Amino acid sequence: MKLYLPEPGGDEFNAAIEGRQDVLVSDLAVTELVSAAARRFHQKSLTRETARRLQHAILARLDEGVYHRVELTRDVHRRAEHFLLSVQATPLRAADAFHLALAASGRAASFATFDTRLAAAARASGFAVYPH
User: Among 45, 70, 95, where does a domain finish?
Assistant: First the structure.
């Protein structure tokens, strides 16, 4: 959401991402963005039209190649299961394990998240994490 709506930390995040050629995005991340937008719509803090524009904007960037799409394959499922069973310091939810596995399958060196639990798991898994 920070790329598309004003939020705390959004300016710094946009500055860090803008112009990069190595940003990986999965359809899982798109669905989570749409879920967050839908939640805001139901809370009456976002219009349905704005939520749809957010969805179309990120999909357009994926289709245009601005972001590189990483796919949820059988191998990614196995990697996620590995993360679920091996990251001991931080218990993971399935979606978080998928995000780590998708990053690993895309050979990412760094990982962007504002979720403290996911950030800790990413660090424990060897990723450099933004924000620090």
Answer: 70
